[in-house]
Amino acid sequence: MKKADMCGGVTRRIDSKAPKQIKSTDMVLFSADSALQPSVGESLDDCANGRIDYISGYAAKLEGGCFLILDARNRFGREEFAKAFVTADIFPSLVKMTDEAQLAAHNGIHSFTHGLPMNFGGSVRIDYADGEQIAYSANQSPVFGVRFGIGLYELFSDYMGKERVKLPDVRQITAVSLYSESSFDTVSLDLIPDTDGGYVINKRYKFEEPKVFRYSDKVPDTVIESVRSKVAESYMLIWDRFPKGGLQPIKKTLTLVFADGSRFCVENDRALPLLFSSAFQELESILTTKY
Q: Where are the beta strands (DSSP E) in 117-237?
């Protein structure tokens, strides 16, 4: 084992080409999280009444609005979590805050101390439409000051109350298809209405030819309700608005059918927030569980 990889060892990476000043003002992605630790002249008690000492804010500019995630907490167990797809544009305020805090001065510097607990430090990633980027991280200490962190908390809290973008009603989802394809097999899971008014899941597993296995299971109505809930809480109906994020070892395609006959289809190749990274697997689990 390398010394840097041992507990207490430090792995450090510096991108010497990362710009320390950003010219663009067209921000399209903001993702920042950090522990909050007062420096000279600062006090947690003076900011937000000491309510938080950790903040995570995520904002993505998508077609039709901005998708936001806020996670704020403190060491005493208080936690505030919210997510929303709003019509208002949060990015002009984020551009101003980023510039005033001179976050680009840390651009390209990444430091990782092995053995430290989670949420002890933080990370920043900010993307601009012209390709410029601010990215830096450190898990051993806060990556921005208390005042910037409290400003983020107050800004995101305000925008969580803005008008929401209207999305299709998940209660109108009547059928679901989840298709998975890898170099070894393909799996089709289809949740469809049964002739008696209930639901049935048709499962098809294809391995090396001619190994094809088909099953049909009648399931309770709670299954479609679980699917609808997962679609809603994971904001799956806006996933196609996120930029593509590269190929996956297992290609998955989700198709939702609504009562009016319309369809929504999305693949697992989108650059989604980490919060939704397991949503496809969770949906697959709902459709493969024995009832």
A: 122-128, 133-138, 173-181, 186-193, 199-206, 212-219
CB atoms within 10 A of CB 72: 24
Residue 27 to residue 128: CA distance in whole angstroms: 4
Residue 165 counted as domain residue: no
In terms of phi and psi (left: phi > 0; alpha: psi -120 to 50; beta: otherwise), the region of 77 is left
Is the residue at 11 inside a domain? yes
Range of the domain at 234: 170-288
- pLDDT tens for residues 147-202? 899 999 999 999 999 999 999 999 999 999 999 988 778 999 999 999 888 899 99
Confidence (pTM):
0.89
Number of continuous H segments (helices) and E segments (strands) in the chain: 4, 14
Q: Give strand pairing partners of 83.
A: 69
Q: What is the DSSP letter of 56?
A: E
Do 152 and 160 meet the contact criterion of CB atoms below 8 Å apart?
A: no
Domain assignment of residue 164, yes or no:
no
